[in-house]
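Protocol step 4 of 6: structure prediction from sequence.
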Amino acid sequence: MPRESRVEFRALNVKAHPHPEGIYEKLWISAAQMGSILKFRGDKWGMVGTWQVIKVNGKPAIEGELWRFTYIDPNEPWFNVEKKAEATAEDLKAIQIPNHLKPSMKRFRYLFATDQHQLFVQTYGDGETLGIEPAQNFVFALLNQKALELPAVVVDLVQDKESLSRFIQRSHLQTLFIDISKPNPDRFSKEDEDDLFEAMSREGVKRKKIELIAENDEGIKPNEETLKQARVAATNGHVKATALSPDGGTKIFDTKNHPITEAFTYMVGRDSLVERFRTNALDLLARLIK
């Protein structure tokens, strides 16, 4: 009997310097083939479980699964729930788990649109959650392994521009910090980004930081140029702002806490998760590059 299941996913912007044609496919596949087990967060570790090169509108992309599991450190203390005490050396003799077996394995879909350097990662499904920041840390570690001997990679969260705009335009801003990281020159670029990135290139600037501090409680009144810079940083960098709340306190907005999130439902046992994830990821990609 088919059942409805909800899936959520988020996006990462992957940037390599330098970036000759085909570098992203080479990076991902080479890293995946190494089979490295890398940390997500805490005792959760994982690896690239599967990968397959596909074509998206004639351009290469890679899709597959990330596998996550729990790493148990046998040298850490164990607890005996029956005795309600730390396990003794005698208790531990009963543990017979081969080192190559890891519990709590979970699978999460991904799609890497390599031509636009956008990586879409499943963050929720079947009651299981993969935080986007642990996923970001995992991908950064995966693609920056020294053994790859390939260009260094930066991995940014793709953040929700709409929630950022609402906060900036409706709040009594006290501080506004904008951190812009220049993308690859051949990356898709929207009209409001062109001038900014061209100016950074002319000045030989890779990264630009802007900090505004209000002179009184009336707050900062950002002009169109500042708003444009904040929008650009939401995809290529980071924005953090503080504002006065009605009760006299301080509200904090950080784009790291507002990644763009997409969701869809599908019928388990009837629909293909692979196809539904691909369709929805490509739909978000089309909106990001529109």
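Step 5 (inspection) to follow. The CA atoms of residues 44 and 70 lie 5 Å apart.
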